[in-house]
Amino acid sequence: MTAFLLDEMFPARAAVLLRDKHRHDAVHVGEIGLQATEDAQVAAVARAEGRALVTENVADFAAERDVVLVFALKRNLPAGSGQAPALAKVLDRWARANVRPYLGAQWPHTD
């Protein structure tokens, strides 16, 4: 099963829901002391831990090739309290469809 590292623009609650409801290994950057950390360091942690990095910062991470990057745009998710459960659902569905994801950019469907 895919392990996730959620970037800071997403609510930490999404990682909690991925763990508790969907049974994925998921952490938020804020939970592991990476809040406001350089993007290269966040990518390095995802790489070292074998986690898919979930972010919407396409330009900041587009050059990364040896890590699974899951790009999700917040504008395609509900605002407010609905964002965390919607993101968790999207990531769970993506992980089930991509049991062995390839390295590089991935764009899960948010519909």
Number of strands: 5
How many separate helices? Answer: 4
Derived from helix and strand composition plus strand pairing, the structural class reads: alpha/beta
Integer tally of domains: 1
Helix content: 25-40%
What separation lies between the terminal Cα atoms? 22 Å
C-alpha Rg (nearest Å): 12 Å
Strand order of the largest sheet: 2-1-3-4-5
Give the overall pLDDT as a whole number: 94
Query: What would you call the shape?
Result: globular
Give an account of the 3D structure:
- The chain has one domain.
- Helix content is 35%, strand content 17%.
- It has 4 helices and 5 strands; from the N terminus they run βαβαβαβαβ.
- Strand 1, helix 1 and strand 2 (26-28) form a beta-alpha-beta unit.
- Helix 1 packs across helix 4.
Can you summarize this structure?
The protein is of the alpha/beta class. It is 35% helix and 17% strand. The protein has one domain (3-106).
Task: Give short descriptive properties of this protein.
111 residues; alpha/beta; 5-stranded parallel beta sheet; 4 helices
List the helices and strands and how they pair.
Layout: E1 3-6, H1 12-20, E2 26-28, H2 39-49, E3 51-55, H3 58-61, E4 68-71, H4 83-97, E5 104-106
Parallel strand pairs: 1-2, 1-3, 3-4, 4-5
Helix pairs in contact: 1-4
